[in-house]
Design a protein that fits this description.
By secondary structure, the protein is α+β, with helices and mostly antiparallel strands. The chain folds into two domains: 128 residues; 121 residues, Trna Endonuclease, Chain: A, domain 1 (3-Layer(aba) Sandwich), CATH 3.40.1350.10. Helices cover 41% and strands 22% of the residues. It contains eight helices and eleven strands. The strands form two sheets. Strands 1-2-3-4-6-5 form a six-stranded antiparallel beta sheet. A five-stranded mixed beta sheet has the order 7-8-9-10-11, with helices on both faces. The protein is elongated and about 75 Å long.
């Protein structure tokens, strides 16, 4: 069977035209209705304004970041891995930003193309929020460090620490050593199985060397660690935080140990 390409094209055009509409708010501002929505079902807000020189400004009028701010800390969109992805999205889609407003300036003949490009950009920006629930390893460590600094003075925190009196000490790095009330508190961030296994090895090495310490293990998602690896780690380690989202538990357990 051969496809009727012209019929297929006409059908596709009709479907797309049914999902995209322009409604005039006033003579200078028009709303573009599209099928693009946020995860909660609210539609993206697209507006077009006529500029001088025959250009059209396609803008969200700041609605996207306002919508995301209800459940997200927007400052995180500017920092670290999220910040790099944020800038990359804007660069790839030619979207500009000014005071929280995203926009594209386009000639009339390219408006249709840029409406879909704009929707793609806002979708990718919206997807950055999923890093809060399914962190990559790099953002996990960034978020962990940020939470530590909200609870403990920076001068009490030693990053990438190792005990010099241990043989081959640099082979057993500790994410954080924090001055504790009675013993050093060793804090390990555990984004996945490999780090869980490495942490077990480090803790067992310190125990064999009779190092005096307390430990606190912070998981990205404790439920994702295989049971056998978690059991070995539990035998060697101290208190655990099942998820970095449990920030109140982390703060409470830190303050309990730290002077």
């Amino acid at each position: 069977m051969s496809l009727d390409i012209e019929r297929l094209k006409n059908s596709l055009c009709q479907l797309l035209c049914a999902d995209v509409n322009i409604v005039s708010r006033n003579e200078n501002l028009h709303i573009v209705e599209t099928p693009f929505t946020f995860s909660d079902g609210d539609p993206y807000q697209f507006y077009i304004k006529e500029l001088s020189g025959g250009l059209i400004k396609l803008t969200d009028m700041g609605h996207t970041l306002m919508h995301l701010s209800y459940e997200n800390d927007l400052d995180k969109f500017r920092d670290g891995t999220r910040g790099k992805l944020f800038e990359q999205i804007k660069s790839e889609t030619n979207v500009e930003e000014s005071n929280g407003e995203f926009y594209i300036e386009t000639p009339m003949e390219s408006l249709g193309y840029n409406i879909f490009r704009f929707g793609q950009a806002l979708t990718k920006i919206n997807d950055l929020t999923f890093l809060n629930r399914a962190r990559t390893e790099s953002t996990f460590y960034e978020d962990l460090h940020e939470q530590l600094l909200r609870t403990i003075s920076e001068e009490k925190i030693y990053r990438d620490y190792y005990f010099e009196n241990i043989e081959n000490a640099t082979d057993y790095p500790i994410d954080y050593m924090i001055q504790g009330k009675s013993s050093p508190l060793l804090l390990f961030g555990i984004p996945g199985r490999d780090k869980a296994r490495l942490t077990t090895i480090i803790l067992e090495r310190l125990l064999r060397a009779h190092v005096d310490f307390d430990s606190l293990l912070v998981f990205a998602d404790q439920g994702s660690i295989p049971k056998a690896d978690l059991a070995r780690l539990s035998n060697a380690g101290g208190e655990m935080i099942a998820s970095l989202d449990a920030d109140s538990d982390l703060s409470r357990k830190l303050l309990k140990k730290v002077s």
